[in-house]
Design goal:
The complex is a heterodimer of chains A (387) and B (587). Chain A is an alpha/beta fold. Chain A has a domain of 268 residues: Rossmann fold. Chain A is 42% helix and 14% strand. Chain A is built from 12 helices and 12 strands. A 7-stranded mixed β-sheet of chain A has the order 3-2-1-4-8-9-12. In chain A, β6 and β7 form a beta hairpin. In chain A, α2 packs parallel to α5. Chain A starts with a helix and ends with a helix. Chain B is of the alpha+beta class and 587 residues long. Chain B folds into 3 domains: 333 residues, no CATH class; 146 residues, Sandwich (Immunoglobulin-like), CATH 2.60.40.740; 52 residues, no CATH class. In chain B, the strands form 6 sheets. In chain B, strands 5-6-4-3-7-8-2-1-11-14-13 form an 11-stranded mixed β-sheet, sandwiched between helices. In chain B, strands 21-22-19-25-26 form a 5-stranded antiparallel β-sheet. In chain B, a hairpin with a 3-residue loop joins β25 and β26. Chain B is elongated and about 145 Å long. The termini of chain B are far apart. Classes of the chains: A alpha/beta (387), B alpha+beta (587). Chains A and B meet through loops of A and α5, α7 and α8 of B.
């Protein structure tokens, strides 16, 4: 039984290769604010603070999808034109001189958000408005707005449900559009939004439990409204103080451990069960895996070389076995007692594994159809006899 | 010539630019012109060009590649894109810079000549163009759909030098988004198109914080082919920014932008008032000339000359009377124009450049600024009427000059504003003494009408009127319309704010060509109570539950009289027990 074991080993290596080299090669961020109107200033400043953080850690504008439903910076009510502040000390202008907003105003809708995630867009859609991820992309998805039990309002006009989001993620997974996702949401009853997710490789975190509100942190008297939410504020505090640059070794677990309920005033939630390896593996992921732009290089040549070598070896074995088979066939008369070499069976297996042809599929269909027809026939006979 | 010197200087400088633009290269110029009431007009102009042969072989040097590829992909011959915010105050500030040709209506305006044999092909290319530009300029230009697109007949003429054959095969499409906000995210890609990216040259002055604090600002991008006589044809991209800054507002420090009352001892009082005393003050700081520097007004100084500019064109020009003294940074050279109140500065290649305009002594009698030129026309447009069903539009067009003005008045109206064209009428009120009756003049004023009626949810109204206004008179142009009721899902999230109606575009044909745009209008449509459907759903569900429950009970349960019904087993058992007991007792 030496050969089947070897075959299995080859198959196993080829199957588990992606897991063995489970590294992402690019980072993307989808930052979504969902509230319109001036008094929701804080939601836009939440999103923009996140935008500044991921940009600080190196994700370029071309890989950030920023959705801002309203214009706060140039709003006539804003006493500081062209600026958005997330702190009343007004030390940092979040709008700055260099900003690219991909979806704004009425473009921020549930439909556009789901189309963006699943990349179901028309031909005319420009590349800057698309999420051009692949199966090696780590995505940070940050959402903020007003929500409730298993829904999040968009622009006070429509809602996205937890199931909608879960199905969108599942479709992304099926289309190999992500490697790992960190889903972060700051809204009332936020944890309900990720309760329905069922796709693998997702770490989710939210600001508050079912029946809990998320609160704003503080207001700026000159801006006239609250400028940031508590959960985002303390996330940022951690990111600013602990994650200074890309070489930071802080993990997602460290970030989650930094949440202080007495400061946030609600119970932040985390979800690790979708992640292979569970909480330990999920918590050990680096912050910069999601917030930073880590460009791991995947060397195709090496992997393929190894695989090719294996295949070549396999081919040689097959050739050898065929030779053996031919020899044996020629010596069939002589060989009265067949030794324990099983040349025919494994060779068949190899053929099936390498070339997936349609013939096999059709035979399977035919077998299935026959079985089904037989069953129906039996049932018909049975019912006929019964009557 | 009634041109005042300021405009002519602007014109000469633009002429200078256009003659220089014959060669392949890049030019930039900033024109500063103080306006009355302590305002300052800053006109930035950037031009770069490439030969058509280079463009077609995708060999971009100074021409922005990102824009060039979009133009090639969408088959665009000529493109005009405008981002505008605020209102040009013609009464105080006079005629518009660039004769209004570099200005758009509030929001975003786009018009382009596309290579297309048929209208369908033009529509397909227009869709490609608007979407690609929306990605490039971070604006919702993809919302320019069929309902917001028109095909103007007389208002717009191609600016570039096109061979007749290409223009015959090109279709003009015009789209406008009056609701679109213009903000820093639009300026960012605008600056990235410049060869010096706003890091050096006059582009380094541009900053979202000042630009979007302006009383009026307009960003324009124009792409057109230019064929100098006897030379190779070039494709020219011209980027223009006009902004009107309130000097005292701009001088406020960044960290203390909130206007707070001035301390008593800092007030500048008008001592000529009869009631002026120690306790009574009439502040004059707003009316008096101020000292200002480039750095104060723009928040930063120019970071040296852009090394890619052609050395022939001075980058900074100021239009103030020669009597007012200006100090410039070291290393720069001043060139005073002989025949106009303009002076220009050549910058040193390195080091910051700053300008200081000194305060003028009121007693000297010198003019502080060049008097603004009177525009050809004043235009105002507003809604009339009341209620949620009908309304009217009134445009007041005044010709202040001594010459008759012929112009095209163009409106692009949304489909939910159903225009009654039969109510279109004009009334003339002449400042001159000749009395006129409206019946006679109406025919005389409106020469031609180009009209394309709206189709619900498919296209908007396009109205172009060729009008003529006699000198020193005002024309009132009015028409009525009906407001449609939209479907529930067609209302935007902020429906109660109202719906923006794009600015009317006025293009004068004689005595000279210029553009004016009115302000956009805010149209109130009847809006439903958006929570009503939920009430309806809840009520209907309750009603259905009640009626279904009743009906179900009637259908499923058997109803019998109390005496006919089966006895309950307990009762019958009790009865039996009772009966046996009574029998026993009796027996």
């Amino acid at each position: 039984m030496l050969l089947p074991i070897r075959l299995l080993a080859v198959l196993a290596t080829s199957l588990f290769l992606p897991l063995a080299f489970a590294e992402h090669t690019n980072n993307w961020a989808v930052l979504v604010g969902t509230s319109r109107f001036w008094f929701n200033y804080r939601h836009l400043s939440n999103v923009l603070s996140m935008y500044r953080t991921v940009k600080r850690l190196g994700i370029p504008d071309s890989q950030i999808i920023l959705m801002l439903p309203d214009d706060m910076a140039c709003n006539p009510r804003n006493a500081f034109p062209g600026t958005v502040y997330s702190n009343s000390n007004r030390a940092m202008d979040l709008y700055g001189d260099n900003i690219e907003v991909d979806y704004r105003g009425y473009e921020v809708t549930v439909e556009n958000f789901i189309r963006l995630l699943t990349d179901r867009v028309g031909d005319e859609m420009p590349r800057s408005k698309r999420l051009l991820t692949d199966d090696k992309s780590n995505i940070l998805i940050y959402m903020t707005g007003h929500g409730g039990n298993e829904f999040l309002k968009f622009q006070d006009a429509e809602e996205i449900g937890a199931w909608d989001l879960a199905d969108a993620f599942q479709q992304m997974w099926e289309k190999k559009r992500y490697h790992e996702i960190l889903f972060m949401i700051d809204t009332c009853q936020a944890n309900t939004m990720f309760s329905r997710l069922y796709s693998p490789n997702i770490i989710a975190t939210g600001s508050s439990e079912l029946d809990q509100s998320s609160y704003s942190h503080h207001a700026d008297n000159d801006v006239g409204v609250a400028v940031i939410d508590r959960y985002t504020y303390y996330n940022l505090e951690f990111l600013e103080n602990q994650v200074k640059d890309l070489s930071s070794q802080k993990t997602v677990g460290d970030l989650f451990d930094s949440y202080d309920i007495s400061k946030i005033h609600s119970n932040p939630g985390m979800r690790y069960d979708l992640f292979p390896g569970g909480a330990d593996v999920a918590r050990s992921r680096l912050i910069t895996d999601f917030f930073g732009n880590i460009q791991n290089v995947e060397v195709d040549q090496k992997e393929n070389g190894a695989l090719e070598e294996e295949l070549l070896e396999l081919g040689r074995t097959i050739a050898m076995l065929r030779q053996k088979e031919a020899d044996e066939a020629s010596q069939y008369n002589n060989a009265t007692s067949v030794p324990a070499s099983q040349p025919t069976e494994p060779v068949k297996h190899v053929r099936g594994a390498t070339a997936l042809t349609d013939d096999n599929w059709w035979t399977k269909k035919v077998v299935g159809a026959t079985a089904l027809a037989g069953c129906i026939g039996l049932w018909a006979l049975g019912s006929f006899l019964e009557t | 010539m009634r041109f005042s010197s300021s405009i002519s200087s602007l014109l000469t400088s633009s002429l200078l630019l256009s003659t220089a633009s014959a060669s392949s290269g890049y030019h930039e110029q900033l024109n500063l012109r103080p306006l009355p009431l302590s305002n300052l007009l800053a006109s930035f102009n950037f031009r770069s060009n490439t030969s058509l042969a280079d463009f077609e072989s995708q060999n971009f040097r100074l021409f922005p590649r990102s824009l060039g590829q979009i133009l090639q992909y969408a088959g665009t011959r000529e493109l005009h894109l405008r981002f505008t915010l605020g209102r040009w105050d013609a009464e105080n500030w006079g005629a518009r810079p660039w004769d209004g040709t570099r200005e758009g209506g509030t929001g975003v305006e786009l018009w382009a000549w596309l290579d297309a044999e048929t209208d369908e092909e033009a529509d397909a290319k227009w869709l490609t163009l608007t979407n690609a530009l929306s990605g490039l300029f971070c604006a919702s230009l993809n919302f320019i759909d069929e309902t917001r697109t028109i095909r103007p007949v007389v208002s717009f003429q191609a600016e570039g030098d096109h061979p007749n054959t290409t223009l015959a095969n090109a279709k003009l499409l015009h789209g406008v988004l009056p609701h679109e906000v213009v903000c820093t995210e639009n300026l960012t890609p605008f600056l990235k198109l410049l060869p010096c990216k706003g890091k050096a040259g006059i582009g380094s002055l541009l900053d979202g914080h000042k630009l979007f604090d302006a009383s009026f600002q307009s960003m324009a991008i124009d792409v057109r082919p230019v064929c100098p006589p006897g030379g190779e044809c070039l494709l020219e991209v011209e980027q223009t920014i006009d902004m009107v800054l309130d000097i005292s507002r701009s001088k406020r420090p960044r960290d203390n932008l909130i206007p707070r009352p001035i301390q008593g001892h800092e007030l500048v009082c008008d001592t000529s008032k009869s009631y002026h005393s120690d306790s009574v003050c009439f502040p004059v700081d707003h009316l008096q000339s101020q000292e200002w520097t480039l750095e104060q007004v723009f928040g930063k100084s120019i970071k040296g000359a852009c090394p890619l500019t052609e050395p022939g064109v001075p980058p900074v020009c100021v239009d103030v009377p020669h009597s007012r003294s200006i100090f410039a940074s070291e290393g720069s050279t001043e060139i005073k124009s002989q025949h106009s109140d303009s002076r220009c500065y050549k910058l040193a290649s390195e080091g910051d450049f700053n300008l200081v305009l000194t305060q003028l002594d009121a007693s000297s009698g010198d003019k502080e600024l060049v008097e603004p030129e009177q525009p050809l026309l004043y235009a105002d447009r507003s809604f009339t009427g009341y209620g949620q069903e009908h309304g009217g539009v009134q445009a007041i067009l005044t010709n202040p000059g001594d010459e008759e003005v012929e112009f095209v008045y163009m409106e692009s109206l949304p489909w939910f504003m159903r225009v009654y064209l039969h109510t279109l009428s004009t009334r003339i009120s002449a400042a001159s003494s000749i009395p006129t009756t409206s019946a006679e003049t109406s025919a005389e004023i409106i020469k031609e009408i180009y009209y394309r009626p709206a189709l619900d949810r498919e296209r908007g109204t396009q109205l172009e009127l060729l009008l003529r206004i006699p000198p020193k008179s005002t024309v009132f142009l009015t028409y009525d319309f009906e407001k449609s009721i939209l479907r529930y899902t067609e209302y935007p999230p902020d429906a109660n704010r109202g719906f923006d109606v794009a600015a009317a575009v006025i293009t004068t044909l004689s005595p000279r060509k210029m553009n004016i745009r009115t302000t956009s209008l805010l149209l109130y449509l009847p809006t439903p109570d958006f929570s009503m459907p939920y009430n309806v759903i809840i009520f209907t569900s309750t009603a259905i539950a009640l009626s279904f429950g009743g009906l179900y009970n009637i259908l499923v349960r058997q109803i019998v009289g109390a005496d006919e019904g089966f006895e309950s087993p307990v009762k019958s058992k009790l009865k039996r027990v009772l009966a046996t007991i009574t029998r026993r007792l009796a027996g």
